[in-house]
Amino acid sequence: MTSLQVDASPSRTTVARGTPSRTVAAELRGLVKRFGGVTAVDGLDLTVTQGEVVAFLGPNGAGKTTTIDMLLGLSTPDSGSVQVFGTGPRQAVAEGRVSAVMQSGGLLRDLTVAETLRLTACLFSHTRSVTEVLERAGITSIADRRVGKCSGGQQQRVRFAMALLPDPDLIVLDEPTTGMDVEGRRDFWNAMHADATRGRTVVFATHYLEEADAYADRIVLVSGGRVVADGTPAEIKAMSAGRLVTATWPGAGTGEALQLRALPGVEDVELRGETVLVRAADSDAVARHLLTHTPAHDLQVTSRGLEDAFIALTGHPHTTPDTVDLTGATR
Ligand SMILES: Nc1ncnc2c1ncn2[C@@H]1O[C@H](COP(=O)(O)OP(=O)(O)OP(=O)(O)O)[C@@H](O)[C@H]1O
């Protein structure tokens, strides 16, 4: 059973999970990491229990990669602690209990996919068979292809297969699908998710809200180096209460937008060409006003999604590496 709590100071919404007896996979306590004058991670606390698939979501510069680097023992915190399966992260990695899929690097272009995996397997005392990880990562058909000839999405699945070799208890993926097309992303996550359903703990950082929504059991929203919200995708979406009213209103301009903004319960008004978008707690009142006091027509009322929650909870518009400001007029 889970329950939603609001912790007023600092502003953070958490889900207290009622399963304290489950094995803790990773425990980050009071993590702080500074680079010169920049505080990349600012007192971050997070407990991941075994078997969870956790998405680390946040705007650019939120501190996701810095946190993941500390989780993997690639860098050390200025203060705070990291424990992975009750030990330090470096030891957990050395024991093969944790492995990672990073965005780039780690591949030799002239080796085939199968040679790459056989070479990687030599680094560990015990591994799963190359045949098995090829299958798990969905790349058996390209086993004899040179890595340099593989697409970006296929190369990420090679990295995923490499990470599966030691049969880790925790797999950490840092924005593994950046730059992939939609099909590549879907294939990658289907392979990852099929593996995760066998009880593996997964922590992944992503810019893609839909990936977090579709593949995570739990979303940890990070902003300014801190956890600002933590819950299931449904819980995170529900944190941004209210609805979006969309209508066509030819000729609407700043004056009309300001009038709407002044209505009770209206949080935000946006104009995109002839379309007006109103985010409001009381969508009925907004709809009634638009239909009775203005020439607006073609009204639609929709529940707000993860993107609205992202904006509300982080104070940032949501952007991905291949899109621009989603709240801007260019959308
Ligand atoms: N090696 C470094 N030297 C200086 N500043 C750094 C370094 N690494 C990260 N930072 C800064 O720390 C902050 C957090 O960066 P980090 O890469 O962890 O964020 P992120 O959430 O992963 O961002 P993105 O989604 O854009 O990858 C940023 O302001 C970044 O510029």
TrEMBL record:
CDD domains documented for this protein: ABC_DR_subfamily_A (cd03230)
Transmembrane segments: none
GO BP term (any one): response to antibiotic
Membrane topology label: Peripheral membrane protein
InterPro entries tied to this protein: AAA+_ATPase, ABC_transporter-like_ATP-bd, ABC_transporter-like_CS, ABC_transporter_ATP-binding, P-loop_NTPase
Keywords noted in UniProt: Antibiotic resistance, ATP-binding, Nucleotide-binding, Transport
UniProt-listed Gene3D superfamilies: P-loop containing nucleotide triphosphate hydrolases
GO MF entries: ATP binding; ATP hydrolysis activity
Localization in the cell: Cell membrane
Recorded superkingdom: Bacteria
Domain ABC transporter residues, every copy: 26-249
A Pfam family this chain is assigned to: ABC_tran
Any one of the GO CC terms: plasma membrane
Residue span of region Disordered: 1-20
Protein's name in the database: ABC transporter ATP-binding protein
